[in-house]
């Protein structure tokens, strides 16, 4: 166990963490976040579930309550960084979280007829996928340090952090930034008994990936992804890539010259244009100056 300042007795066991009791999950209204919420739900666990869509959040909440958890819903838009941070601070003041999972994210890609994402898309992606979670993790880390009871912070990144993605440069950048941030935060918090894990899934069968019409090798079900993520958090893994096939691929990519990786991704399928799922209305990103170039929000 690292850190002499850790007073909390029950939730570290060797290098493993026993079950956390108060957990905040962002993006709990859908996909991986919803699966994480239901997997952690049980008696004597308090779950604070964050999302934007109250109806979806309520559905997940009632499943978790049926499993015996105490559930608090929190509706916030992470793009409103100040509002998000205020909410986090207030919630943590009340619940003193053992574990905070920054899972919410968007997976915007360039529109089918464009070569790149728009500047507005890039800003929005970085706000939701990187700025909000990184600032939020700092806030939670500060509060955990002051409490002196240890804790855990998990950030859901993506294998996109390791691969050049011609159709989603902003997404790839947001996840690569998240990895760099989480590893640095991990190093900073070592002496305080606070575990920081960044977990990078490959394709997971959620509404986000459902809207990408591309080959999705080794796609996981959200419940399987949630179980794997929970195992990584319990083992206090600094960085984990799931499933193992992607871990092997990312390991090999480390030794490939960058130019070759770029050439490879531009040649083989990674440049597949995104398509809307059948019947899905095209959605124009709020604040986009040029509304004629409709943006595809794959969430
Ligand atoms: N699916 C994959 O293949 C895959 C692969 C690698 C990594 N990931 C990562 O896994 C995480 C979860 O993705 P998912 O596949 O579960 O996607 P999802 O089903 O689309 O769920 C995304 C969640 O993020 C929330 N969210 C999005 N924008 C938000 C905002 N501005 N403010 C607050 N909450 C917001 C959504 O809330 P509302 O529903 O309320 O809008 C939803 O709960 C993301 O970080 C994603 O990048 C996914």
What does this structure look like?
The structure is a single chain. This protein is 42% helix and 14% strand. With 299 residues, the chain is α/β, with parallel strands linked by helices. The chain has one domain: Rossmann fold. The strands form two sheets. A seven-stranded parallel sheet has the order 5-4-3-6-7-8-9, with helices on both faces. It has a two-stranded antiparallel ribbon with strand order 1-2. Strand 3 (22-25), helix 1 (31-40) and strand 4 form a beta-alpha-beta unit. Helix 1 (31-40) runs parallel beside helix 2. The termini are far apart. Residues 1-14 and 275-299 have low confidence and may be disordered.
Explain briefly what this protein structure is.
The protein is built from nine helices and nine strands. The protein is α/β, with parallel strands linked by helices and 299 residues long. It has a single domain, classed as NAD(P)-binding Rossmann-like Domain (Rossmann fold), CATH 3.40.50.720.
């Amino acid at each position: 166990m690292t850190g002499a300042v850790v007073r909390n007795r029950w939730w570290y066991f060797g290098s493993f963490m026993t079950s956390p009791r108060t957990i905040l999950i962002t993006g709990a209204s859908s996909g991986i976040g919803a699966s994480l919420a239901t997997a952690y739900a049980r008696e004597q666990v308090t779950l604070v579930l964050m999302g934007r869509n109250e109806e979806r959040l309520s559905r997940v909440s009632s499943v978790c309550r049926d499993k015996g958890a105490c559930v608090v819903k929190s509706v916030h838009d992470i793009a409103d960084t100040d509002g998000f941070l205020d909410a986090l601070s207030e919630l943590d003041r009340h619940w003193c979280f053992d574990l905070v999972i920054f899972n919410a994210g968007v997976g915007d890609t360039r529109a089918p007829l464009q070569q790149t994402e728009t500047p507005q898309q890039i800003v929005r992606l970085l706000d939701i996928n990187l700025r909000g979670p990184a600032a939020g993790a700092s806030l939670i880390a500060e509060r955990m340090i002051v409490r002196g009871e240890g804790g855990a912070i998990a950030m859901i990144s993506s294998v996109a952090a390791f691969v050049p993605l011609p159709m989603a440069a902003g997404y790839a950048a947001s996840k690569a930034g998240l990895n760099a941030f989480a590893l640095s935060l991990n190093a900073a918090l070592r002496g305080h008994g606070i575990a920081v894990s960044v977990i990078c899934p490959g394709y997971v069968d959620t509404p986000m990936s459902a809207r990408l019409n591309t080959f999705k090798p080794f796609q996981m079900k959200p419940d399987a992804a949630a179980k794997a993520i929970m195992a990584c958090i319990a083992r206090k893994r600094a960085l984990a890539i799931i499933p193992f096939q992607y871990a092997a691929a990312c390991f090999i990519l480390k030794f490939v010259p960058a130019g070759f990786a770029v050439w490879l991704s531009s040649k083989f399928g990674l440049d597949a244009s995104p398509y809307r799922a059948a019947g899905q209305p095209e959605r124009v990103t709020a604040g986009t100056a040029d509304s004629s170039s409709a943006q595809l929000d794959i969430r």
